[in-house]
Design brief:
mainly alpha; 0% strand
C-alpha cells in the first residue's frame, strides 16, 4: 500500500502556516492508534516537521501566533506516546524520529538522557550522541504557546 507524499497544508519550506496546529493534532491522534509501520513513520515525520518548524507565516505572525511553539505544545500532550514509540523499537526511522521530536519538546533533560541510554542499541547515531538535541523553547514547562487558545 502506498501513502501520499507529505503535502504543504501545514507548512512551507520557509515557515509553518495557519493549519499547522490542527495538522499536528491529527498526527498525534493517529499515533495513538494501532497503525501499520509505514503510516506510523509518515505521521511521525509530519509531526517532526511541525515541531521543528522554522517560523510562522506572515498572516499568523500578524495575529501574534508562534506556530512552531503551538505545535510543540500539541506534541507535548502526547509526550508519553513518543516515549512509548522509542521503546517499542518498531523500526529505526520510527524510533529515531520519535526521539528527535522528544529532543524538541521534552522539558526533563534527565528523562531524555535516560531514554537515550535505554534505547541506545536501536537509535540512530545522531540520537545516541546528542547531535540532534534541541532545547525546549517554552519556559517553565508550558509548551502550549501563549496564543494556543486563539486557535481552539
Amino acid at each position: 500500500m502506498s501513502y501520499p507524499p507529505l503535502d504543504d497544508s501545514g507548512a512551507t519550506v520557509q515557515a509553518l502556516r495557519g493549519p499547522a496546529p490542527a495538522v499536528a493534532s491529527v498526527a498525534l491522534a493517529a499515533l495513538a492508534d494501532d497503525l501499520a509501520l509505514q503510516p506510523r513513520e509518515w505521521f511521525l515525520d509530519l509531526l517532526h516537521r511541525l515541531v521543528a518548524g522554522d517560523g510562522t507565516d506572515h498572516e499568523s505572525a500578524r495575529r501574534g501566533l508562534d506556530l512552531p511553539t503551538i505545535c510543540e505544545g500539541i506534541a507535548a500532550q502526547g509526550i508519553w506516546l513518543l516515549h512509548q514509540e522509542v521503546m517499542a523499537n518498531r523500526s529505526l526511522p520510527a524510533a529515531g524520529t520519535a526521539f528527535e521530536i522528544l529532543t524538541v519538546i521534552e522539558p526533563d533533560r534527565a528523562r531524555l538522557q535516560a531514554l537515550r541510554e535505554l534505547a541506545a542499541d536501536w537509535l540512530p547515531e545522531c540520537c545516541r550522541t546528542g547531535q540532534c538535541d534541541d532545547e525546549p523553547t517554552a519556559s517553565d514547562g508550558d509548551l502550549t504557546g501563549d496564543h494556543a487558545d486563539e486557535l481552539r
